[in-house]
Amino acid sequence: MRKRIMVVEDDEPILQLMEILLQKLGYEPQIYLNGVTALAELKERQPSLILLDVMMMPINGWEFLEKLRADPASKDLPVILFTAHPDVKAQMLGIHDPRLGVLFKPVGIAELEAALERFLGPAPAKDR
Fold it and tell me: CA torsion angle for 77, 57, 114, 97 (degrees, to 10)?
């Protein structure tokens, strides 16, 4: 069974690119254009990991993360913040969460694979 990766990103072209990259790496992407829909879906289909955009509406990535960590059913899910915002690195210094990582846009397949392997172990069979 392939591991599911939830991608929450409000930029549709980036969302589509992440879907393609994750499929190439052997994962099953669950894609969402906003955090509200993604949080509701967590109750039905919990992924192995969440790739989370920081700057989005109607709730931003930090608000999503706060709600995620407040729910006992999802508080331990690994999350990789996916952002182009340079201040995220400084914000991460105050957060001591071993289940939280960050990737800066634009991201290539090798960077994505390394970030996923940090939390999930070796990637499944690839289509490369």
Answer: -40
Q: How far is Cα 45 from Cα 34, in angstroms, rounded to an integer? A: 16
DSSP per-residue letters across 68-104: HHHSTTTTT--EEEEE--TTHHHHHHT---TTEEEEE
pTM (global) more than 0.85? yes
> What is the C-alpha separation between 120 and 72, in angstroms, rounded?
20
Question: Does residue 106 have a cis bond before it (omega within 30 degrees)?
Answer: yes
Residue among 99, 65, 72, 102 nearest 87 (CA): 102
Tens digits of per-residue pLDDT, 75-85?
999 999 988 87
